[in-house]
Amino acid sequence: MTTSTRGASKAPAVLVLEDGRIFRGRSYGAVGETFGEAVFSTGMTGYQETLTDPSYDRQIVVATAPQIGNTGWNDEDAESSRIWVSGYVVRDPARVPSNWRAKRSLDDELVAQNIVGISGIDTRALTRHLRERGSMRAGIFSGEAIAAEPELVGRVQAQPHMKGASLYEEVATKEAYVVPAVGEKKYTVAAIDLGIKGMTPHRMAERGIEVHVLPATATEEDVYAVDPDGVFFSNGPGDPATADGPVALMTAVLERRTPLFGICFGNQILGRALGFGTYKLKYGHRGINQPVQDRTTGKVEVTAHNHGFAVDAPLDKVSETKFGRAEVSHVCLNDDVVEGLQLLDQPAFSVQYHPEAAAGPHDAAYLFDRFVSLMEGQRA
């Protein structure tokens, strides 16, 4: 939730955590108040893509990189039609943006989209606090929204938790649309939008795939009306334990043995469809420098992440599911979190991270080729 006013630049601001920790700074972006789950992102670049990623819905994002805004804001790099974070926390905002593609400053764009932020605080201390205590509810208050500390803490503590939050329908498209293949059309994919980033269908289109992006509420009939060669389930926000509709749809796709690929929220949906549980991570993985091992090849990838939940699947064995054998295909080398699943008896796999990598490394781009290979094999 956000309420804000424009134009009161550099007003006093406070960041209030639910455990009572308070950081004082100056306003950045719009002035007012906002609430969300405080999380940190370790990317040193790509703030525009981060802010417009629908997976950050209802989250206050803390940038661990000390200076933010150097390259301003352009009209090409947004991952969706708007900024989705509920608040933004930075240490040292750039005074003057410098990039040939920049159209305006990040501060100006935050004001234009009524995003309340705070600057000038010790983001390193805040990040250490969240790592030790875990992601938690928070609020940013600036200008006239600032009140007595006990009142602000109480208002933060009255906000809903992320665990149990159903958010994917809020951020998904309401109408289906098509992203045409680049060059010759080779395949058709039905992509279920649970909070999809714009670069994802583009990566498929580059490989000759015509992508039909469907709402989160799409039915089995909607999916197969486009005569897909494959079905894709996207990233998205909230608790996967609430996503019974997408789980039912994925189950129907698996029953038809249609080639299937999921990322992030889609990985959690596949986990649930296979009978595994999900759980909330202490502080999650967010940023563009997370090490993941592809256990099918042994290679280690530097990957882009944005998730606060994970799949609870065994790392040390092949599991029997109602769709055949399944195994963990990728694992995070920092903490052994499940980062990918694959079925061994039919064409379906998923990863927990973001292979479209906007912004970020391109180590995992091969996963889109792997999806193409599944569709090629099914067609043959």
Write up this protein:
The chain has 380 residues and is an alpha/beta fold. It contains ten helices and 21 strands. Helix 8 packs across helix 9 (265-273). It is globular and about 65 Å long. The model has no long low-confidence stretch (mean pLDDT 95).
Describe the secondary structure blueprint for this structure.
Layout: E1 2-5, E2 12-17, E3 22-29, E4 31-41, H1 47-51, E5 59-63, E6 67-68, E7 87-89, E8 92-93, H2 106-112, E9 116-119, H3 123-133, E10 136-142, H4 149-157, H5 168-171, E11 177-179, E12 187-192, H6 199-205, E13 209-214, H7 220-225, E14 230-233, H8 244-256, E15 260-263, H9 265-273, E16 277-294, E17 300-312, E18 319-321, E19 324-332, E20 338-343, E21 348-351, H10 366-379
Parallel strand pairs: 4-5, 5-7, 6-8, 7-9, 12-13, 12-14, 14-15, 15-21
Antiparallel strand pairs: 1-4, 2-3, 2-10, 3-9, 4-10, 11-13, 16-17, 16-19, 18-19, 19-20, 20-21
